[in-house]
Every structure is written in C-alpha cells, then in structure tokens.
Amino acid sequence: YRMYWLVVMSLLVCAVGITNSMLMSVTERFKEIGTMKCLGALDKFVVELFMLEAGMMGVVASVLGFVVGFLVIVLVAGFSRGWDIVGNIQFMDVLSKFGISIGAGLVLTTVATIAPAIRAANMPPAMALRSEI
User: Fold this and answer.
1) Contacts for 89-96 with beta carbons within 8 Å, 24 or more apart?
2) What is the C-alpha separation between 43 and 28, in angstroms, rounded?
3) Are 120 and 30 in contact (CB under 8 A)?
C-alpha cells in the first residue's frame, strides 16, 4: 500500500504543478485572450484552446518521461542484474505500459487544466485589455 500512496501523492503534486503552470499561462496571455474575445471568440473557443494546448503538452511530456524512465530502468537493470535480463523484456509489456503512461499523462493534464481554462474563458474582455502585468 505504500507504493500506491506514493504514486497517488506524486500524481497529486504533478496535478498541482500543471495547474500552476496553466494559471501562469493564462496570466501571461491576458491581452491575447481579451483581444480574441473582443473579436468575437466564444468562451467555449478559449476553453478549447487551453485544453488543446494542455493535451499536446501532456502527450509530449508523457512520451519523453516514459522514454527517459525506460532507458534509466534498462541501464540500472543491466548494470545491477546483468544484461541478459534486459534481453528478456517483452515488447508487448513495454507497449502496454507506454499506452498506460500516455493515457495517464493525458488525463492528468486535462483534469488539471479545467480550472485555469474556465478562468480564462470567464474573463471580461475589457478587464483583460486594461490589465498591466
């Protein structure tokens, strides 16, 4: 149960970090969001824009994280237990874990981006154009 606790806590920390970075992205784009809304962009479009950006970042980060983690595990296993154990790795197991990591990263990033995207969509255009950051 300790392992599950550590996984849940690390995912929670990741979600807070993703939410913070997306809130900063919204803050840095006040004028852009205000301009888009003044030109007729709907709230739904602003939400979709941020969700699309977060989804792409989540997929790319998940792929990079999996590749780096897999290489580190292979090197550690190769040097500590011998390289014959690395040769016994099943390709389908690696592929299934890759799919799980991509799915988990995409879901985590999407869920963590909902609040900042709604905050960006609910911003009044005049206030966004008037703000000085």
Assistant:
1) 94/70
2) 18
3) no
Q: How confident is the model over 46-87, as pLDDT tens digits? A: 999 999 999 999 999 999 999 999 999 999 988 888 888 888
Cα separation, 96 vs 94, whole angstroms: 6
Of 57, 52, 73, give the one whose Cα is nearest residue 105: 57
Separation between Cα atoms, residue 91 and residue 127, nearest integer Å: 54
Q: What is the DSSP track for 47-68?
A: HHHHHHHHHHHHHHHHHHHHHH
Taking the C-alpha atoms of residue 49 and residue 21, their distance in angstroms, rounded to an integer, is: 15
Name the residue among 89, 94, 66 with its Cα closest to residue 78. Answer: 89
Four-point Cα dihedral 13, 19, 25, 29, nearest 10: -160
**pTM for the structure as a whole:** 0.80
**Neighbouring C-alpha atoms within 13 Å toward the C-beta of 78:** 10
